[in-house]
Each structure stands twice: as structure tokens, then as C-alpha cells.
């Protein structure tokens, strides 16, 4: 008897709160028409992608991790809990138990879904805690915003709570809620509501009209109360808790994807604010919203190839000829417009997207060299130390150059980083490996305070670029002139090119030519332009 027949037999033994599922050839088969009719699915045979699309966004990564863990451990029985969307747009929580087996050399699963929460209870109250949910909060905020009532809100979150709950059990979760409620009561007495956002994040809503203090003072009082309670608690410390305060009608609070918005504000406080404490205001809200929008859009922009490149010439001062072009990443966001690399590059590094972003720009740089047949010079590609030391970087760079039939000496690897690169053994090894493969090497932003003087003596650079802050201040101090004069002498001894960055006026160009600098780059020579 085959598995599909067994699934149909099992269907006849279950009630309306349970469904039988199985996987085969990338599809999910759902047996239990009454049960699965509740879900937002076109039919009872769907692709795995369609199934994942109805799972709550916060639960998708968790489920994928559980599946991969079961595969890695080759476990026969798998269990998980996650939320799925119903046809009404609400979410219900399912418990899934599956049996893994191999048939005709294909991994397959058969299992059972069981409803843990009903749509109505999930919509109004969280099952385990009894707190009102994000749906109730959204409705309440709609009324407050519409009626222009004076309310303040507090997002309280513990990044470690979910991990502690898994380790010590659900009691720790309830203890944290008691911890929050005791802290709030000491400031607001009984005039407040607490809402469940997710397993780590909660929201308190309080009418401000009853209190004479400003939002800042009330937020500070609550922060102090959290400190007092943490000193009495054996389970939580103030350091692990983030607190965000906001006046509901004082900022533009977007109610679409409200749970995601609140969690993002909490994470921003956790990652960027002193004591993980943030008071949102008209002054800082726009900048924080921009930061979060950029952060949330990065991965999709990389995967969707939304970044473009601009190039800026590096010109030989003696001949006036273009020596190379530096590649500069550009991003035009559909909502907030042009985003500076100074904004998105640090976030790319922080979120671990350095390699995927870096190879995208590397490929676009190679495409530029191939298409631009009007010159036969090189191109400078900025490479961070993180990217340089990523897996098989040198081998991949050589393969990509060969793929586009580009001589490696036409690709200048421009190293930029916030640590002295001569101190890192792996970095040194990669630099020498690049040199052996024929790539040219450039040291970027020399004199910025990050690069070591020993780098230009100890490593085989073909080019050193002087930081623009030095160049733009050479007329303000003789010390800068002396430093450049010193670098010119060293460049002759070490046979590397010296490039002055940030040349914004013709006066600087003349001074640098008189000093004997090899090449210049900046707006006085040419603004960055798109290859098209």
C-alpha cells in the first residue's frame, strides 16, 4: 500500500481540527479537506514555496532551520509549531509532527497538523499568556490615532527571553511578564494595558493625560523601575532588556505590519542606544525609520540585483590621461530614494551580507571593463577585509576575471578597513596570493587613522591613496605638506603610485602637481558617472 493511500485512510479517522500532510517531488499534499479549507491555499496540492508563503513571516526562518536540523541529524520524527494564515487573513498556530522516510532514493515526509489556537482566540488573546495580541493593539491604535487621544506606548523586549524559555521552560516567559507588569505598575498604577507582540517583545499602552510628567520623564521612570525590579530578580538583568518609548500621536506610526515595526524599533534600541533605551520623537523618528527601512530592504536589494555602479576616473597629473576608474556602488531605493554608500555599506557588513554584495559589485565591475572598449586601462574595486578573507576569495576573483577574459593586472583590488591590515596574518596571506595571481593592489584612505604606516613598507602595494581629509587640508598646515612630501619619497623608493583623493578644486590640483603627486581623483577632475 503506497503512502498516498495511507494518507487518505488516515484522513477518514481524524476530526476537523486535524489534517494529514505529505511531501513528494517538491510539493506538499494536504489530506483533510475540511481542515485545510480554513487556510489561504488554492488547492490541496501546493508547492513548498506556496506553503511557506502562508506561514507567519516571523516563523519562516525558524521552520526552515528546524527542517535543516532534522535533515542534518537524519532524524525520523520531526516536530514544530508555527503560525499559518487563514482565508480571513488571521493567523492560527499549528503543531506539526512528521515522519521522515526514503522512497525511491527521495526524501519524503508524512505527518499530521493540529490546530493549537482558533482564529478568534488568536486574534484577541495569546493562548499561553492571556495577553491581548497585536490584532487588538492595532484596533486600539486606530481609535487612538483617529480620535487624537493622548497615549504613550512602551516597547519592552528581551533578546534572550526566547532562548531562556527554550532552556528553562514556559515559566520563565510568564516570569518576564510579571517582571514587566510590576515595573509598569510602579509608575502607572492601574492605567495601562499590556500586549503580546512575539515571544520576546511586549507593548504597554498608557493614557498620558493622567500624568503631569513629559514622555521623557515617564520613560526614565519606567527605565529606573526596570532596574529596581532586575536587582530583585534572579532571572533578568536590565542590560538584556531594551525599552522604547513613544507618544502615539506625536510620530507617524505605520499600522501595516505593526508587529514588525515594533520589533524593529526594539532591535534598533538594543543595537544602537546607550542602555538599550530610546525615546522616539519627531526629531529622531524619521532618521530611525530611514535606518530601519534600509536595513530591512538590503537582502531583497542584493538578491534582486538592485544595486548599480558609478565610476570615477583616476587621472595621471603629468599626462592628463585616465589611469583607472574607481567603482562606486549606488542604490536608488523605491521609497526613500538615493541612499549613500556611507549608510548602506556598514549595514551590509553588520548583517553579514558582505560576500554576496561584494561579488555582485565585482561582477558588475568586470562587465564594465568588457563593455567599455574606448580605453585599455584598469579598474579599482573596493574590497573590505571581511570580503578579502571570505572563503576562496582569491580563487573566485581569478575565476571571474578569466570568465570575462580580463587580465588580472587590469583589476586593482583597493583595500579599505577599520583595522591595521598588516597585523592580520590571514589578510597578509591573501594579499600575497592576489599578487601571485597578477592582481594589482591599492591601499585606500592612507592617513585616515586606520591604516598602519608599516603597511606601505611591508606589503606589496602598487598604489597608495591619500585620504581626502589630508588632501583638503594641505593649505591649512605645513604638516600635511610634509607628510605628502614624505610619501612621495617613499613611493619612489618602493615604486608604487601615489593617488590624492578628494580633489575638489583646481587650486589643489596645481599644488599636488607641484609637489609631485602621481595621480588625482575628485570632483575637480570628474564627478562619478554611470557607465551608461
From TrEMBL:
Residues 291-532 form the EAL domain. SMART domains: EAL (SM00052). This is EAL domain-containing protein. GO terms for molecular function: cyclic-guanylate-specific phosphodiesterase activity. Pfam families: EAL (PF00563), PAS_3 (PF08447). It comes from Photobacterium proteolyticum. InterPro entries: Cyclic-di-GMP_PDE-like, EAL_dom, EAL_sf, PAS, PAS-like_dom_sf, PAS_fold_3. It comes from the Bacteria.
Amino acid at each position: 500500500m503506497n503512502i498516498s493511500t495511507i494518507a487518505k485512510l488516515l484522513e477518514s479517522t481524524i476530526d476537523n481540527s486535524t489534517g494529514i500532510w505529505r511531501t513528494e517531488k517538491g510539493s506538499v499534499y494536504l489530506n483533510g479537506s475540511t481542515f485545510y479549507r480554513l487556510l489561504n491555499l488554492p488547492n490541496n496540492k501546493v508547492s513548498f514555496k506556496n506553503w511557506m508563503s502562508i506561514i507567519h513571516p516571523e516563523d519562516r526562518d525558524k521552520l526552515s532551520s528546524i527542517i535543516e536540523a532534522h535533515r542534518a541529524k537524519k532524524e525520523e520524527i520531526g516536530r514544530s509549531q508555527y503560525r499559518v494564515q487563514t482565508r480571513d487573513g488571521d493567523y492560527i498556530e499549528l503543531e506539526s509532527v512528521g515522519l521522515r522516510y526514503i522512497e525511491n532514493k527521495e526524501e519524503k515526509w508524512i505527518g499530521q497538523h493540529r490546530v493549537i489556537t482558533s482564529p478568534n482566540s488568536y486574534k484577541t488573546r495569546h493562548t499561553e499568556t492571556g495577553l491581548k495580541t497585536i490584532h487588538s493593539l492595532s484596533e486600539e491604535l486606530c481609535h487612538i490615532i483617529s480620535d487624537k487621544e493622548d497615549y504613550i506606548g512602551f516597547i519592552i523586549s528581551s533578546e534572550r527571553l526566547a532562548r531562556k524559555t527554550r532552556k528553562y521552560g514556559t515559566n520563565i516567559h510568564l516570569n518576564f511578564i510579571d517582571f514587566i507588569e510590576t515595573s509598569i505598575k510602579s509608575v502607572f498604577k492601574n492605567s495601562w494595558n499590556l500586549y503580546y507582540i512575539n515571544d520576546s517583545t511586549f507593548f504597554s499602552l498608557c493614557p498620558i493625560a493622567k500624568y503631569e510628567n513629559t514622555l521623557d520623564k515617564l520613560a526614565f521612570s519606567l527605565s529606573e523601575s526596570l532596574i529596581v525590579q532586575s536587582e530583585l530578580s534572579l532571572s533578568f538583568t536590565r542590560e538584556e532588556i531594551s525599552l522604547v518609548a513613544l507618544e502615539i500621536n506625536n510620530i507617524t506610526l505605520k499600522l501595516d505590519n505593526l508587529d514588525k515595526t515594533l520589533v524593529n524599533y526594539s532591535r534598533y534600541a538594543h543595537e544602537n542606544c546607550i542602555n538599550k533605551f530610546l525615546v522616539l520623537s519627531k526629531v529622531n523618528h524619521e532618521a530611525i525609520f530611514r535606518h530601519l527601512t534600509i536595513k530591512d530592504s538590503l537582502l531583497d536589494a542584493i538578491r534582486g540585483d538592485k544595486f548599480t555602479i558609478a565610476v570615477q576616473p583616476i587621472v595621471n597629473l603629468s599626462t592628463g590621461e585616465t589611469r583607472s576608474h574607481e567603482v562606486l556602488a549606488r542604490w536608488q531605493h523605491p521609497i526613500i530614494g538615493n541612499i549613500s554608500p556611507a549608510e548602506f555599506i556598514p549595514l551590509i557588513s553588520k548583517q553579514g551580507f558582505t560576500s554576496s554584495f561584494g561579488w555582485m559589485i565585482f561582477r558588475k565591475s568586470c562587465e564594465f571593463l568588457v563593455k567599455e572598449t574606448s580605453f585599455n586601462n584598469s579598474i579599482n574595486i573596493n574590497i573590505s577585509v571581511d570580503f578579502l578573507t571570505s572563503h576562496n576569495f582569491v580563487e573566485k576573483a581569478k575565476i571571474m576575471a578569466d570568465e570575462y577574459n580580463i587580465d588580472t593586472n587590469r583589476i586593482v583590488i583597493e583595500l579599505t578597513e577599520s583595522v591595521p591590515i598588516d597585523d592580520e596574518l590571514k589578510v597578509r596571506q591573501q594579499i600575497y596570493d592576489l599578487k601571485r595571481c597578477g592582481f594589482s593592489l591599492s591601499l585606500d584612505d592612507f592617513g585616515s587613522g586606520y591604516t598602519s604606516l608599516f603597511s606601505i613598507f611591508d606589503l606589496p602595494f602598487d598604489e597608495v591613496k591619500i585620504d581626502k581629509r589630508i588632501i583638503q587640508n594641505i593649505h591649512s598646515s605645513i604638516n600635511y605638506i610634509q607628510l605628502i612630501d614624505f610619501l612621495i619619497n617613499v613611493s619612489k623608493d618602493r615604486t608604487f603610485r601615489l593617488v590624492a583623493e578628494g580633489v575638489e578644486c583646481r587650486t589643489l590640483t596645481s599644488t599636488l602637481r607641484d609637489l609631485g603627486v602621481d595621480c588625482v581623483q575628485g570632483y575637480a577632475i570628474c564627478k562619478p558617472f554611470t557607465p551608461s
